[in-house]
Amino acid sequence: MEQQPAKKAHGPKSKSGKLVLCIILTILIGLVYFYVALPPINPQSGDFYVFIAVLCIVFVVTSILTSGMDLIRDGSGPKDYLRFIKSRCLPAGILLLVLIAIGIVGTLISLPIFRAGAYRDLLTVEDGNFTTDIAEISFNEIPTLDESSAEYLSDRQMGTLSDMVSQFEYSFDSTQINYQGRPVRVAPIAYADLFKWFTNRGTGLPAYVTVDMVTQEATVVRLEEGMKYSFSEPLNRNIERHLRFNYPTFIFGTPQFEIDEEGRPYWIAPRIVKTIGLFGGDDIQGAVLVDAITGECTYYELANIPSWVDNVFTPELIMEQYDYHGTLVNGFINSIFGQRDVTITTSGSNYIALNDDVYMYTGVTSANADQSNLGFLLSNQRTKETKFYSAPGATEAAAMSSAEGVVQDLKYTATFPLLLNIANEPTYFIPLKDATNLVKSYAMVNVAQYQVVATGSTVSACEQEYIKLLNNKGITTPNETPRTEVSGVISDIRSAVMEGNSYYFIQLEGDPTYYAISAAQNPLAVILNVGDQVTIQHTPAIDGETSSILDGSTITLDGAAQPAPSPIVTPAPQEETGTGEASPSPAPAE
Question: Residue 293, CB half-sphere, CA atoms under 13 Å: how many?
Fold first, then answer.
């Protein structure tokens, strides 16, 4: 019996069948690519052209594998193979060349050399009044931590929660916001690994972490219902994938995690538009707010974004736009040759809470990047309202080096500074960290004379020492510095030694506040007694807050303590004992 040859498996034999197979394979691979890469379907995005190019390449490769190889196996000649390439692959190749041409032309027409004026006008910069605007900032709005220190405290706090630490971890993706009038960093937690995600995906992430940037207190805030949408979700609930599926044509910036005034978590995704040519002039047109718990998305135009949102414009975008504004002020040619009036931002930035918003701070220097600043920028990260403040002096880097030099024996490192108004003097405020990344001290450096440096273990102590230096150097006079005066009778005196110096804490009758007086600067404090009438000059309390301890600068004795009259007998004159108490009256003679 003759054995029949085994049948070979074949794909579609007709040309149309093979074409359909190529299209199906291209679509499937394209869908996988779209799911992973998430390119916006927008001709102003470079990722869109990459996506189309990938589809063209996949179609050509699958065509060769399904049809072109058959021609080679059948022994067809070169003419047949070229005819196949022309009929099947040439359209995809032409489309690929068109995409490349669009990319090249679009890039050229978007270059600053051709559109210098448009790039210069991306950012509107107004001149600010330093003493008026910056004087409004009180110390309860000044962040005393930098980002890395806040992340360290958050991670350490997360590690103290035994019920969470085995399943979740700190995300190290914090955002600085203004929460209920306080500067706060907030970040979600994340699944510890893929298996922990699989176990907990039904309930979501149960908490987020906040750090008060003034008090340095880290708190894990537990939620009644877990967050289902985050960066740690690997599938459809990944925040970037969720945004792309809901808004396939939008070009998004990196979503930022925030909480509203009630503590509900949201993701803020700024919508980027190209305003110059095809690919140039990045700006923000609006933002999508995503409820991190439910995934509900709401798009707002820029003018309608809720006031509690603090992060729409990133510091990087604002600094990039100012660099265009500063370098192209007199045209593109001048930005390369001559560089008249050309200015750029310095290499770092920081944040400050002001008027219920978060403002980005950075310095402005000349194009030759010397060791001096011309001033600084404050820019609202929600509205992009930007002001330039003229404050010539040292750069932030020079101020940081100067501050580190004062505490070099302690080996503290300086964080990027903020610019404050202290006694109407532009002043760098610099937290100083130890080797464990914790803030241990603070420094204030005069911008105009960066060798004038004061340090202190608290913000108010640092300010007090700094003001004394300003007075001693003749930069300011005592009557220019902010002081508040109080007079009264001493009701309590306590003492303590801090950093090797003796301090006396004096309380006046009817006043719950203690005033800290340095014995080294006010020797009179050593001999004061309860009952003495004194006048104390001290730093003002923070606006809207009651302080239990204020720093006193000077104290004067207005009257010595008088013996208290007895309610039973009229006391005879008696001598003071020097201990703050009167010696007892002699008993009446029998």
Answer: 12
Q: How far apart, in whole angstroms, are the C-alpha atoms of residue 257 and residue 174? A: 7
Beta strands, E only, 477-573: 484-498, 501-508, 514-518, 533-538, 549-559
375: left (phi over 0), alpha (psi -120 to 50) or beta: left
Q: What b/e string do you get for 31-46 counting C-beta neighbours within 10 Å, with b at 16 or more?
A: eebbeeebbbebebbb
Fold of 483-559: OB fold (Dihydrolipoamide Acetyltransferase, E2P) (2.40.50)
pLDDT reported for residue 293: 97
Confidence of residue 508 (pLDDT cuts 50, 70, 90): very high
Q: Provide the token pair at 296.
A: 């509900």
- Check residue 575 and give its pLDDT: 44
Single-letter code of the amino acid located at 75? G
**pLDDT value at 71 more than 60:** no
Pairing of strands 533-538, 514-518: unpaired
Task: Spell out the domain ranges in the chain.
Answer: 15-108, 143-312, 318-476, 483-559
Distance CA 198, CA 234 (A): 10
Check whether 405 has a pLDDT greater than 70: yes
Q: What is the pLDDT of residues 413-437, one digit of tens each?
A: 999 998 888 888 889 999 999 988 8
